[in-house]
Amino acid sequence: MNLLGKRYLFFALSFIVIVPGLIVLFTGGLPLSIDFTGGSLLEVTFEGATPQPAEVLAVYEEANIRDPQVQTTETGGVIIRSEFLDNEKRDALLTSMNAAFGETTVQRFDSVGPSIGEQVTSRAAMAVGVSSLLVVLFIAWSFRGIKGAYRYGISAILAMLHDVALIFSVTALGGVFFGWEIDSLFLTALLTVIGFSMQDSIVVFDRIRENSSALRRLDYETLVNHSIVQTLQRSINTQLMTVEFLLLALAFFGGVTLRQFVIVLLVGLMSGTYSSIFIAAPVLVVWEKKEWKNWFGRNKATV
Amino acid sequence: MIKNQNTRLLIIAILIAFALWIDLSDTLFLSNPVNGAVIYERNVKPQLGLDLRGGLQVLLEADLPEDADISSDSMEVARSVIENRTNALGVSENVVQIAGDRRIVGEFPGLEDTEGVISVIQQTGLLEFVDVGATFLEAGTFIETDYGLSEEPVVEEGAEAPTVYHTVMTGGALKDVGVISDNFGAMQIAFELTDEGSDVFAEHTSANIGMNLAIVLDKQVISAPRIQSAITGGSGVITGQFDSESANAFAVQLRYGSLPIPLKIVESRIIGPTLGEDSLQRSLQAGVIGIIIVILFMAIYYRLPGIAADISIIFYAILAYAIFKWIGVTLTLPGIAGFMLSTGSALDANILVFERLKEELRKGRSLKQAFDMAWSRALPSIRDSNAAVLITSIILFWFGSAFGASIVKGFALTLALGVLISLFSSLYITRTLLAVALDKIKVTNFPRWFGI
Asked: How do residues A203-234 score in pLDDT, each as one tens digit?
């Protein structure tokens, strides 16, 4: 099985999948939740009939609360996002909602101060940065015995960036179609995907490491291809186990609260396995052969 | 293969027995059979997170400039003051923790009265005993006192100067406060003063019998009892129109009045109980379905080793749950997800080994050789790949702790612990079980037993 021969085809495929979401992301902006921007989110259900969004908006305007946005839920409740609410404001708001719509039950109320939101964002970026850096260092250290150890680290990071781009892209699309947001749970999913993306790449790299001493005489491309094929069964089966079975079960049967989280994880972990085979390992070969010298030159046949 | 099979089996059996004991009980209890003395006791009731049972979470931040130096001691005092105040409300199982340098996170599970908790937390609580002379002040009146006043208040021309009352002493002079009821069932607040406080109090009360002494919290009168007699013994009672609830609330205010640093609420979250319950049910159901499919798949695809792996996965779950209960991991939805992912990790390690085992057998190696090689060759990739996951989960845990984001923290903790336990399960338990099985069964037909 020659998987590596078609490497530019796989690069193109990833490109096609990732780019539309990224375009949405850059044109529409990140759908950041109040975890990062600060603000409040109130989810309520009603004893009686669910009021029209306009009626709810009227209550907010009465209370002089800035930029409220109303969204109705599947269960007949209402989610309202607005500026940061302190305790008095919230109580006053609930009292007037009770008066306007009858018995109102709070299902969820989140209120995040603007300063906290900012700090969460910067720390989150730092958490992602620090963990990627540590993992690159770890891989470089772990592969120190073979030629170009740092290449393995950087290829793993490229594959990881591929996965990260993909889940951002999926979330951006989900934001457009299902009102998904980038919240602290998304961050959790993101970091998990990073961890497992590395795990997948390392498994493939480990085979290359092992083969590079045993099968020294093979040329690099054949060696890498051979290693991919050898680990393919494991990759598919582990993928089936973790992603397909466990996460699909959670996605289908788990509560609504977790759905976005699970789908992002599912896509991310699947992409993690895909990228370890079709991005991380091919990048090593591209690097070894210095193929970029041909990218804009005569030899266009491979593109 | 492996030599000391019996010892290994014994170790596994003892571990599983212990784990089951923890899994199946709410408290661990050991007493000395001779004299009945308690040797060991530990509460291992499973703790459910706010997202699973509903409740309130608040994040408080020191209301001081960014660069102000806040000592960890004063944070700790503030934390325990808040803990005491909220515990005194009768809220059970609440958790108040310091998050980072200047934040405190409070979690109050299964709570109905969220407003009560928030208002109790928000009191900055400067408690003063103020001499108001013969004036009677209604509870709720705001007054000016001379405590902490460095200069005369600026009074606008023409306006009447507000009365500034003299503060006799502050809440710092109180040693203990309790609620008692008199012979007729009326509630009273009993208090005890520090030595210094009792001198001041004795002097003031003997000189001002018949006058009113206002008890003022944050410049607002809570109560203004009349001094009926001189209080010289350093203890006394406050009588008034109390029912048991208001008496308790008053006692709490007196006891835990002062915070060493001002705090403000920067984040609050309320999760309704029904939302949580629904999620828990469904996620557990989903987990069970997922695990059953996985177990079937392993057994069908990998045959004998698959069954060994299945048993070891079940042991893994028993061990992991016991350890979570033992160290008191709060189970949240992402926590469950983290646990399921680490189950995936455990399976991955098994799959790596089994694929290797099949490969070596296909190359025509003997069973013993293939068995030993499978584990030793798969080890570096299992070790390195799990190390990468551990590194990420440590960073996540740090991130979650700094912001009191217990959801992120819970996920990171269960993932990290799960990965560690999964290593033990795949490298030790599966290996032992498979070696024992292969010894007993004397396999000759490889395709049939290994699914090659």
From this structure: 899 888 888 877 777 888 888 998 898 888 88
- Residues B187 and B212 grouped into a single domain: yes
Q: Which domain covers residue B184, as residue numbers?
A: 127-244
CB-CB neighbors (< 8 A) of B393 in chain A: 191, 195
Span A97-119, mean pLDDT? 80
User: Candidates 3.30.70.3400, 3.30.930.10, 2.30.39.10, 3.20.20.70; correct CATH number of A39-112?
Assistant: 3.30.70.3400
Inter-chain touch B343–A199, beta carbons under 8 Å:
no
pLDDT confidence bin for A167, thresholds 50/70/90: very high
Contact B377 A210 (CB under 8 A): yes
Angle formed by the axes of helices A184-214 and A149-178, to 10°? 150
B254 within some domain? no
Buried-state track A72-107, b at ≥16 Cβ within 10 A, e below 16? eeeeebbbbbbbbbbbebbeebbebbeeebeebebb
Closest CA to A192 of B396, B331, B316: B396
Using an 8 Å CB-CB cutoff, list chain A residues near B287.
Answer: 246, 249-250
Hey, is the C-beta of A302 within 8 angstroms of any chain B C-beta? no
Q: Do A241 and B344 touch (CB under 8 A)?
A: yes
Strands A104-112 and B38-43: what pairing?
Answer: unpaired
Query: Residue A62's CB: how many other CB atoms inside 10 A?
Result: 12
Q: Give me the mean pLDDT over the B131-151 stretch.
A: 74
Torsion of the alpha carbons at A197, A202, A208 and A209, rounded to the nearest 10: 160
Tell me the CATH number at B286.
1.20.1640.10
Cβ of A247 under 8 Å from any chain B Cβ? yes
Cut 0.80: pTM above it: no
Domain count, chain B: 3
B389–A195 C-beta distance less than 8 A: yes
- How close is the nearest chain A Cα to the Cα of B126, in Å? 21
Same domain assignment for residues B141 and B240: yes
How far is residue B355's CA from residue B353's CA, in Å, rounded to a whole number?
A: 6
Fold (topology level) of A4-33+116-295:
Multidrug efflux transporter AcrB transmembrane fold (1.20.1640)
Cβ <8 Å between B287 and A249: yes
Three-class SS of B324-370: HHHHCCEECHHHHHHHHHHHHHHHHHHHHHHHHHHHHHHCCCCHHHH
pLDDT tens digit sequence for B320-364: 989 988 888 877 777 877 787 788 888 888 888 988 888 888 888
Predicted pLDDT at B256? 61
Q: Which of B64, B292, B385 to mutate to test the interface with A (most CBs of A within 10 A)?
A: B385
A138 contacts A201 by C-beta, under 8 angstroms: no
For residue A2, which amino acid is it? N
Provide the b/e sequence for B6-27 (b: ≥16 CB within 10 Å). eebeeebeebbeebeebbeeee
